[in-house]
Batch of 2 targets.
Target 1
Amino acid sequence: MKGWRRKPEVHQVTDAKPSLSADIHKREISYLIKMGIRTICLILAVVVPVPWPYRLLFIAGAVFLPYIAVIGANERGNPGPPPTFQSPEANQSEIPLHRREIGS
C-alpha cells in the first residue's frame, strides 16, 4: 500500500542560493582586488624604470582591468540550469511548437 504514495521533496541546505548580502560582499571584494591590481600596474608603468614591453603590459593592465572589474562586479550569482520539460515549473499542458498542427 505504500507504493502509491508520493515521496515528499526533500530540500538540502546546499541547494540554497547564497544571501543577497553575501553575494554583494563577494562581488565587492573581487572588485577591490582587481582595482588594487590595476593601481599597482599603473604605479609600475609610471614609476619603475622597466623596458618598453613590460611598461606596455602594465599600461594594458591599467587600461583593461577597470572594465573587467566592473563586468565582474555587476554579474550576479549563477542562475542555474534553464528549466526543462521534466521540471515542475514547465507548463506541461501546452502543446510543444514542433507538435502543433495547422488549424489547431
Target 2
Amino acid sequence: MRRVVSPTVQNRPFTLLVAAVAVAIEGLAAVAIGGWVAYETLLGGAGDVMSSLVLAAFALAVGAGLVWVAWGILQLMRWSRGPAVVTQIFAGLLAITLIQAGQLAWGVPLIVAAVVILVTLLAPPSTHALMGDV
C-alpha cells in the first residue's frame, strides 16, 4: 500500500528541513536537560528541591513544545513559524547572557542554532511554503 503524501509536503524546501531538524535538536536538548535536573534532584543533589523540580518541569515542557513545533514545521503548518521564531529570539538573548558570563560552551552553540533557525525559517522559500502568496 502506497502512502499518499501531499504535494506541498513532498516538495518541502530544504530550508524548512534544516529549521525543523535544528528546532527538534533544541527540543530534545531541553528534554535531556530537564530529565537530568529531575534525576539529580531526586538523588538529593539539589540545594532547593522545589526550584529544581519546577526548572525540570519547565525544561521538559519547553522541550516537548519545541519537538511539537518542529513536527509542525515538517508538516508545513503555518502556526509553527511564530513559536519557532519567538523561541529563537529568547534563545539568542539567553545565549548572549551565557557568553557574557563566560559560558562559551553553552552560549556559542545556542546562538549558532538560533541564527541558523531564524535564517532558514525567514528565508524566501520557507516563507512561501508556510505562508503561500501572502
